[in-house]
Amino acid sequence: MNVELRHLRCLVAIVDEGTFTDAAITLGISQAAASRTLAALEQALGVRLLRRTSREVTPTAAGIRVVVHARRVLAEVDDLVHEAASGHTSLRVGYAWSALGRHTPVFQRRWAETHPATDLHLIRHNSATGGLAEGSCELAVVRRPLEDHRLDSVIVGLERRVAAVPADDPLAAQAAVRLADLAAAGRTLMIDRRTGTTTPDLWPAGGRPAMEDTYDVDDWLTAIAGGRRIGMTAESTAHQYPRPGVTYLPVRDAEPIVVRLAWWRDDPHPAAQQVVELLTALYGVTP
């Protein structure tokens, strides 16, 4: 037997109301129907969810855990129904490490001013598609070419590459650095192979720095601030994540990073074009 939404609603109603009688009234069903529905849920899950006495009904330990999940599932279903019935009232934009750097707060405020009926949510998801392929968002800001042919994208901006070095590293005293400086002996470069824009191909085969993998921007910053490692990233990271102990420096001889907005090719969000127009205006790029 499968677990159905009516099972979860019945359980939550019984817990909230305290009795089967009151829960039945809330649900608009008979007390017998409420009892059968709860019994069906317990049978489907294979656990006892409620303790029944002549005076009260209380959840068991397993019941408490199931109620927590049930509330979340029912809330998500309610959100889904509301969104489907009223059109796209929310827009989730994903990103891997940094959203839009210095443009992030301006983007958020201008969107709220010009599109008050569509709530904007920025979501960090450390994947190659910024959470798009994983279903976490409808649009995504990405800084690597997309390999998934189900997705489409357009260039919305360019960003400089910057080096991130410990504040007490000799490089921190310079106004800018070169790629060769980052490959100097004794320095290890932290890179994220899944989502990052720093790859060994930026250096000639014989002049590449030692590299170590990282999987999260906070871990990356912590390692650099601790004096053990260095990094290279988009300038948006420097704006999004200033960190004591870390100095960001422009990299003179590195190509800029292309910033793209991506979406599902066969199901673009209705607001995609408006987002493209706003971002290209902020970055000063002609679409």
Give your account of this protein's structure.
- There is one protein chain.
- The chain is of the alpha/beta class and about 290 residues long.
- The protein folds into 3 domains: about 5-85, Arc Repressor Mutant, subunit A (Orthogonal Bundle); about 90-160 and about 260-285, D-Maltodextrin-Binding Protein, domain 2; about 160-255, Periplasmic binding protein-like II (D-Maltodextrin-Binding Protein, domain 2, 3-Layer(aba) Sandwich), CATH 3.40.190.
- Helix content is about 35%, strand content about 20%.
- It has helices at about 5-15, 20-25, 30-45, 60-85, 105-115, 180, 215-225, 235-240, 270-285; strands at about 50, 55-60, 90-95, 120-125, 140, 150-160, 160-165, 190, 210-215, 230-235, 245-250, 255-265.
- Strands 4-3-5-12-6 form a 5-stranded mixed sheet, with helices on one face. A 5-stranded mixed sheet has the order 9-8-10-7-11.
- Helix 1 (about 5-15) packs across helix 3.
- The protein is elongated, with a radius of gyration of 26 Å.
- The N and C termini lie far apart (about 55 Å).
- The model has no long low-confidence stretch (mean pLDDT about 90).
Give a quick rundown of the structure:
Strand 3, helix 5 (104-114) and strand 4 (119-124) form a beta-alpha-beta unit. It contains nine helices and twelve strands. It has helices at 5-17, 20-27, 31-45, 61-86, 104-114, 179-182, 217-225, 235-240, 272-283; strands spanning 50-52, 57-59, 90-95, 119-124, 139-142, 151-159, 161-166, 188-191, 210-213, 230-234, 246-250, 257-264.
